[in-house]
Amino acid sequence: MKKYLSDKNFMAGFIFFFVSLFYLANAFLIETKGLVSVEADFMPKIYGSLLLFCSSILLINSFLKLRVKNEEHTKSATDWKRIFAVLGLIFIYVLLMQYLGFILISIPFLFCLSLILTPDYVKKTYWIYAVFSVVLPIIAYFIFSHYLSLTMPSGIFF
Length: 158
Known about the structure:
By secondary structure, this protein is mostly helical. The chain folds into two domains: 4-67; 80-148, no CATH class. Helix content is 70%, strand content 0%. The protein has six helices and no strands. Helix 4 (80-100) packs antiparallel against helix 5 (102-117) and helix 5 (102-117) runs antiparallel to helix 6 (126-147). The longest helix is centred in the middle third of the chain and has 27 residues, at 42-68. The N and C termini lie far apart (54 Å). The model has no long low-confidence stretch (mean pLDDT 82).
């Protein structure tokens, strides 16, 4: 039992399994009016279902790996510098979203996030990060605003 509690993937799958159950149960409690086909409960139900599916796969996969794995396991050092950098970046992203808008704040956010989360042993390809950081927010903005009729934070420029 100790090897399951010390495995990060198993614990993450276990925790997020119950978080997704709670999230999904509350998504079904969202009141809808029945006026349009896609209402306020649609995306939370999708996110909850995806989180439940992914956490179940992670839980099962890590359980099967730990069952056949020997007792030898290596402890990897936690990279606290990257963790706090990502948390700070998310804080700045959320703080500036209403002022600069979704597209303008998402571009530097995704670029910096790509730089931070790329492991040191992988060569950083800045042009791929730049293209990804520009294209993804624009596509997401148009999908959410035009096809799903959801308003995205527009900020001072849009």
